[in-house]
Design goal:
By secondary structure, the protein is an alpha+beta fold. It has one domain (8-53). It is built from two helices and two strands, in the order H-H-E-E. The chain has helices spanning 8-14, 19-29; strands at 35-43, 46-53. The longest helix is centred in the middle third of the chain and has 11 residues, at 19-29.
Length: 54
């Protein structure tokens, strides 16, 4: 049986960068951008914030 995936709340508790700070950084790279979706996931043992920006 596979181990259950961690919830986003559990991952956020482990994150060194808050969602708000990650959003600010992402939006600074895309002038006039708007975040339509966000996700915090663990990849290769590291937490990664990802955003869909339009």
């Amino acid at each position: 049986m596979l181990a259950a995936e961690e919830t986003e709340a559990q991952l956020q508790a482990q994150a060194k960068i808050t969602k708000a700070d990650a959003e600010k950084t992402a939006l600074a790279k895309v002038p006039n951008g708007t975040i339509s979706a966000s996700e915090l996931e663990k990849e290769h043992g590291k937490l990664i914030w990802s955003f869909d920006i339009a």
